[in-house]
């Protein structure tokens, strides 16, 4: 009985000890979290209080700022009637910032912080061949976050991943339809001259194409098109001319711009071309050949008229399927014109015999 009395007496004490321990753990976690948040807030306040986002982040104003760029393509949409390609994805950019600096030891060892894109300097990018015009402002997102990595009081490494949705104009050639291959380029340049900002390819890496996730990460097929390759290079514009060699003279740098080109090579994936186009064409030719072998002209006329009707219906459907003939006439168009002429000549020949 005495033992039970002692146990009942200690139960409230034990419960109070457990409750106190839980509260201490919760308070410790809350204090730790609050300390980190407060440390980040104080760090960002320290950085931005002396920061001018309208000034290039270099201490020496004559020094050029290199911005390394890598393109992630997440979706491609081809409009062959408008001769345009719409690209969606991310642009990774990184550069040195000599103003957004801090000493990590003075901020509890914090080396990385994140600020809003509009709070610090970022390169002003434009698209050379956008269908919306060079001055389009909203094709590249301006609502991203910027990651700043501290390297001490000297400089920091800045990284940003803005999304983009860009519709570019292309020069398509359909003369080899339906086995045509199209090449189109996305041109990105900074509004600053090369004496201030230069664009470069991030570690000479080619653009990343990621049209799917998991098992579909190797996907390269979009609608009727297959992506063969995506490459990137830098060209230099000066005095109305494009150059592959990078200018080095100070005066030339002051009147030059670096343009980052992303080249897309696509070919048409005509999976059902044999069944939908080639076989009907061969059948039509067989009708024409068979009409020569018939002994009676009346039967030949009926076959040729039926073939002509067949060609008319088929050509009507074909004109809806094929892209516009820009430049050289597609080979398939030449084949159907030749076929129609042969049918017409054969009809005249049979009629003259009668």
TrEMBL record:
Residues 1-16 form the signal peptide. It comes from Cercopithifilaria johnstoni. GO terms for cellular component: membrane. GO terms for molecular function: extracellular ligand-gated monoatomic ion channel activity; transmembrane signaling receptor activity. This is Neurotransmitter-gated ion-channel ligand-binding domain-containing protein. InterPro entries: Neur_chan_lig-bd (IPR006202), Neur_chan_lig-bd_sf (IPR036734), Neur_channel (IPR006201). Keywords: Membrane, Signal, Transmembrane, Transmembrane helix. Residues 41-214 form the Neurotransmitter-gated ion-channel ligand-binding domain. SUPFAM superfamilies: Nicotinic receptor ligand binding domain-like. The keyword Transmembrane applies.
